[in-house]
Amino acid sequence: MYALCLRLTGDAGAAEERTQDVFVRAWDKLRSFRGESAFSSWLHRVAVNVVMNERRATIRREQRVTPVAAPEVLERGRGEPMTGLNIDLERAIAALPEGAREIFVLYDIEGYSHAEIAVLTGIAEGTSKAQLFRARHLLREKLDR
Amino acid sequence: MNERELLEAVGRLPKSIEPPRDLWPGIAARLRRSRRWYWVALAAAAVIALVVVNTKSETWKVTWLAGTGPGTLRVGESVATDDSSRALIQVGDIGQVEVKPGSRLRLLGADRTNHRLALDVGEIYARVTAPPRLFFVETPAGVAIDLGCAYTLRVDAAGNGFLEVTSGAVEFEWAGRHAIVPLTFRIEIRPGFGPGVPVVAGASDAFRGALAALEFAGDETALPRALALARPDDAISLWHLLARTTGASRVAVYERLAELVPPPAGVDREAVLRLDSRALDTYWNWLPHSVWLKGFKPPPIERRPTE
Predict the structure, then answer these.
(1) At what angle do helices B247-260 and B235-242 cross, to 10 degrees?
(2) Could you give the ipTM of this predicted complex?
(3) DSSP assignments along B112-172, one per residue
(4) CA A114/CA A125 separation, integer angstroms
(5) Which of A28, A89, A121, B70 has a C-alpha 20 to 30 A away from that of B151?
(6) Helix (H, G, I), strand (E, B) or coil at B187
(7) Which residues lie across from B128 on neighbouring strands?
(8) Which residue among A2, A108, A112 sits closest to B17, beta carbon to beta carbon?
(9) B135, B146 in Cβ contact below 8 A?
(10) At A18, which helix (H) or strand (E)?
(11) What is the pLDDT along chain B (307 residues), one digit of tens a residue?
């Protein structure tokens, strides 16, 4: 959950908050889990909704989310070991513009379809495809430097 | 770095990253504030139980041949490919399914006796080495039932499609309407209709067209045309038509079938016309192309529609 929130938000502090939000929300919504999908899939969907809802609320408050300034926080995780390329890639993903980062994370890392992303984020499928193209282009540019 | 290298690097990213500090105290505090803290222990136990149950359920491995996506598939989860990605799913220990570009496939069951997928849209190529009726693919037009085979199954956004067998045989069923599709045969499938009759590779376009008009357009005048165009190699198509026609039409189908492939000894005309299952089974086993299927009992064809 933390990895998903971290990649979607690009900010370690926000990721901690969203991860906590996810479990609180999951507890509140546990009764709505009807076993039609794997529990992990359901929890995953809750997480994406939590992050997206928070983003919409933030936009409404007209507060600008600052991309992570010191992405070395990504290196402090105690999960799976990260290679140099992974660290560079995580940094590059965190530095992507917000919209492009969300689409890239949801599509290329989490495996959602453009149709699903459109529903989750409230954008058109075409916009999702355009943002994905932009994100991949920016990442390749960044990693080539 | 090209796009393929980028996506390969994405595929190697770790699936989990632990937070720099323990987040549970904050979660527990918030749950306490919601006056339901006494349920926290129960909730934690429930979550752990669900995760444990989930972990114990069978997981199918997904290998991405092009593009990236989740590396596993569990019941309730799906695999979706875009127009440039392809994936290979390991079906338990009985086979593999290649998911072609532009497809969406859901895993409905992963028991040893019920390997069940749903193809919502797109194309798959399935190769299964197992006893019959262990692997199923549901589509909007019905369900493909593996009889030990390899086949291509395609479904478009409207639920129309086809199934083409490249090894062994497949049964396709919808609401009591069955088709047995042997090697080199193909069926068209339609929602609300199910499977058309199997047509052998090499059948004439005119024969295919007549069958399509008869079955999917309800054009009864196409039946005499189809019968006139039929060759001995088309006997399996005609055998299927017996159960899909009535009265004089069924008689005409039988007469043409018997002309192309005379029935074996012991198969009585009247028994076939009243769809006697023993007579039909015997006739089926006598037909060309079904020689390797001898001993396999065709399904009852007078089954009433099911839900």
Answers:
(1) 150
(2) 0.73
(3) TTEEEEEEEEEEEEEEE-SSSSSEEEEETTEEEEEEEEEEEEEE-TTS-EEEEEEEEEEEE
(4) 6
(5) B70
(6) strand
(7) B95
(8) A2
(9) yes
(10) helix A12-28
(11) 777 788 878 877 777 777 777 888 888 877 776 655 555 555 555 555 444 444 444 789 999 999 999 999 999 999 999 999 999 999 988 899 999 999 999 999 998 788 999 999 999 999 988 778 889 999 999 999 998 789 999 999 999 999 999 888 899 999 989 999 988 899 999 999 999 999 998 899 999 999 999 999 999 999 999 999 999 999 999 999 999 999 999 999 999 999 999 999 989 999 999 999 889 989 988 887 644 444 444 444 433 333 2
Chain A contact present for B54, CB below 8 A: yes
Round to whole Å and give the CA distance between B210 and B219. 9
Q: What angle do CA A20, A21, A22 make, to 5 degrees?
A: 90
- The pTM is what? 0.54
Chain A CB contacts of B6 under 8 Å are 136, 139-140, 143
Q: Contact, B237 vs B231, CB < 8 A? A: no
Q: Which of A77, A136, A139 sits opposite B18 (nearest CB)?
A: A77
Residue B108 identity (one-letter amino acid): L
Q: Residues 32 to 91 of A: which have CB under 8 A from any B CB?
A: 36-41, 73-74, 76-83, 85-86, 89-90
